[in-house]
Design a protein that fits this description.
- By secondary structure, the protein is α+β, with helices and mostly antiparallel strands.
- The protein has 2 domains: about 30 residues, no CATH class; about 140 residues, Pnp Oxidase, Chain A (Roll).
- It is built from 6 helices and 9 strands.
- The strands form 2 sheets. The protein has a 6-stranded antiparallel beta barrel with strand order 3-4-5-8-7-6. Strands 1-2 form a two-stranded parallel sheet.
- The two termini are about 30 Å apart.
């Protein structure tokens, strides 16, 4: 087995202890650093929970966004979203909506995804900001429009409104909790898993 800088792109690889020993026996630490591979030992249960939570997040298309429009006020709204591998959430909304005005005033938000047919839920707290002028915004807008148009019978509500007034909002997670009431043991410690926040 031979590793070269040309054969691997920089990445963070989560491996079992056995796999790490195998690679370590073949490559020196300097070689590993040269190809940008970071070996991270993680608790298998924690990593499994993270992968389950991420798969759950990406499998769904809608969630409830909670914002703070004013002092002693809260506001909740169902939104369509897309997410990346680090639990970053992206939504498309109008500049005239209550939630966007709330985000401008108070960027602290909460985001919840759940499903009625299987008792699982993902709770995210984070900071929201308008990234409409960023280079990444156009790509995220395309992804969001694809989600909005994925229903063969009805269009997403925002697709019927003036696109000039739309903005792409990024929610950067600061706290994530995965709750699996379906397959976890009958123990609160097993049901709730706090997911480490990445990028």
């Amino acid at each position: 087995m031979e590793l070269s800088a040309l054969s691997l792109r920089p990445a963070t690889v989560i491996l079992s202890s056995y796999a790490q020993c195998e690679i370590a026996s073949l490559c020196s630490p300097r070689q590993l650093r040269s190809v940008g591979v970071a070996l991270t030992i993680m608790d298998s249960d924690a990593e499994r929970a993270r992968l389950d939570a991420l798969a759950f997040l990406k499998r769904h298309k809608t969630g409830v966004l909670s914002t703070i429009p004013g002092q002693y006020q809260v506001h909740g709204s169902m939104v369509y979203y897309v997410a990346d591998d680090y639990f970053n959430i992206y939504i498309l909304t109008l500049i005239t909506t209550r939630k966007f005005k709330a985000i401008q005033a108070h960027p602290q938000v909460a985001f919840t995804v759940s499903t009625p047919d299987m008792p699982q839920t993902l709770q995210i707290e984070g900071m929201a900001m308008d990234i409409s002028l960023d280079e990444e915004a156009a790509k995220k807008k395309e992804e969001l429009l694809a989600v909005l148009n994925s229903n063969p019978w009805f269009y997403g509500p925002i697709t019927k409104l003036d696109p000039v007034e739309t903005v792409v909002v990024w929610i950067r997670p600061t706290w994530i909790r995965w709750a699996d009431y379906a397959f976890a043991e009958h123990d609160g410690h097993q049901v709730f898993k706090d997911i480490p926040v990445g990028k």
